[in-house]
Amino acid sequence: MRRRGAALDAKPRGAHLAAMKRFCLFALLALPAQAETKMTATQFGAFSEGYTVFFNRHGAPYGAEQYLKNKQVIWSFLDGTCQRGIWFGERDEICFLYDDQPDALCWYFFDDGQRKSARIVGDDPADDLVVSGQSKSPLSCPGPDVGVSYRP
């Protein structure tokens, strides 16, 4: 025995199922863009000030930066050589200007809730720097300027 209206329900259920599949597909495709949220300058300052942040690139240690008061920074490729500079917000970018460099280098900093990363504006996401650690300890900068202190 046929249920009343069963023939009418069959087609809408199929159309509804197809619409749900399309919706799920579009939602999944949109997830990476939604999950990757750019930090504002205020968020970046709250995350970084007073810390030394360590970065990996392609799964290997790349460098570290110490973030001091007044947006001052010290960068090292972890080779004992350190470079002083400053950071500033420019639109949705975080830019760095180091001593002896004429131009600022600007980055996007991302926080997806599980990891933080940085990308030079215009670079491929595959080359992102990924935050691998954060410490209250200052950078070690023994050379080549031995005897010069980089502590705040």
TrEMBL record:
Keyword Signal: yes
Signal sequence residues: 1-35
UniProt keyword annotations, A-Z: Signal
Region (Disordered): 130-152
Organism superkingdom: Bacteria
Name of this chain's protein: Protease inhibitor Inh
Gene source species: Litoreibacter janthinus
